[in-house]
Write a structure and sequence with these properties.
single chain, about 350 residues, alpha/beta, Rossmann fold, 5-stranded parallel beta sheet, 15 helices, about 45% helix
């Protein structure tokens, strides 16, 4: 799209979110990014949690973290710009070691990914020898390297069941672990960090970890009940990083991609999203004839750091390049590859 087409699109779908002056500036910056993207033979990935003006203009692909990394690996581009947080860009580097991978923000962290270290996993493996380790894809490369197999929020149950093991270590999201434990019928325990469990008779079926996403942690059952009281016909969709009791009180739970597909394929006239609010803005822009209830103003502080200008600067200055030691990358790749082999 040229400048006029880009501005027209932004005005059509985002005029309720930005002023006219802001839309003009956003469209101009999008044109600069597209120009330098061609010059550098780059591909731009936009996570579902990116702010709307970025999400709907410059990405070649939009979606969830693993799906984007896989698509980028299939391209012939020299540079990958991952508009998402650092662990997502790391996954792209794990799958595309020959490419330059850039993350537009120097401080694009994640409360969940930062809740666990590689040393934490080594200690857990000592405490529970022989128990396979499943690690959520929302983790750093050195953590993935200590893992037997990765999972996504969409395939976590399938990955756990594929191991055919009585006991499983599931890291690091305690709520996702709790939701998977319920789905698989496993009893779950959460060892205290640095403290060894000495009860040899303990029924250990799933070992979790006290990590959480600071955004999804904010949603409660009371939130749902309050909304339903005013809107009894609302359909509630929750991400599985929400508390198990919140997921249980919702009508549907799934990954960001699954939530988007569900809304697209079902005639939901009134719905509530329990996930990062920029994704709600992006969905609303594509479904203007449906009523999305705006209960929250919960933005991921890390995702929110990445705007169009940051994306431009990443390409122009080649800044915030992702590097992973090769021995760690290879071990992390194996854990991701094992997951991909089961679907």
């Amino acid at each position: 799209m040229n400048y006029q087409q880009t501005l027209a699109k932004l005005t059509r779908i985002l005029s309720d979110q930005y002023s006219e002056a802001e839309l003009i500036l956003k469209a101009e910056m999008a044109m600069k990014i597209k120009k330098i993207k061609e010059q550098r033979n780059a591909v731009i990935l936009g996570h579902n949690y990116m702010e709307p003006a970025l999400f709907h203009t410059v990405p070649d692909f939009t979606g969830d973290s693993l799906g984007l990394s896989r698509k980028a690996a299939e391209t012939d581009k020299d540079v990958i710009v991952f508009c998402g947080v650092e662990f997502m860009a790391e996954t792209a580097k794990i799958l595309s070691p020959e490419k330059t991978v850039l993350c537009p923000s120097q401080k694009a962290g994640c409360s969940l990914a930062e809740s666990i270290t590689a040393e934490d996993i080594r200690q857990l493996k000592k405490q529970f020898p022989g128990v396979p380790v499943v690690t959520y894809i929302n983790s750093y490369a050195d953590v993935k390297a200590e893992t037997d197999i990765c999972c996504t929020s969409g395939n976590a149950k399938e990955v756990v069941e594929s191991l055919d093991s009585e006991a499983v270590i599931f890291l690091p999201d305690e709520y996702l672990a709790g939701n998977v434990a319920k789905e698989t019928g496993k009893h779950i325990i959460f060892p205290s960090k640095g403290k060894k469990i000495n009860d040899n008779n303990l029924d250990v079926q799933m070992i979790g970890w006290h990590g959480k996403c600071e955004v999804h942690d904010q949603f409660t059952v009371e939130d749902i009940e309050n909304v339903r009281a005013s809107h009894p016909d609302v359909f509630v969709l929750a991400h599985p990083e929400c508390k198990p009791e919140v997921v249980n009180a919702s009508d549907f739970s799934g990954s960001t991609t699954e939530i988007i597909k569900y809304i697209k394929n079902n005639n939901l006239q009134k719905y509530l999203l329990l996930t990062e609010c920029a994704m709600g803005d992006n969905i609303q822009a594509e479904n203007p004839n449906r009523e999305m209830l705006r209960m929250c103003a919960v933005r991921c502080p890390y995702m929110n750091q990445i705007q169009l200008k940051d994306t431009y600067n990443a390409l122009k200055l080649n800044q915030y390049e992702i590097t992973i030691p090769e021995d760690i990358r290879l071990r992390a790749y194996k854990s991701v590859e094992r997951m991909l082999q089961i679907g």
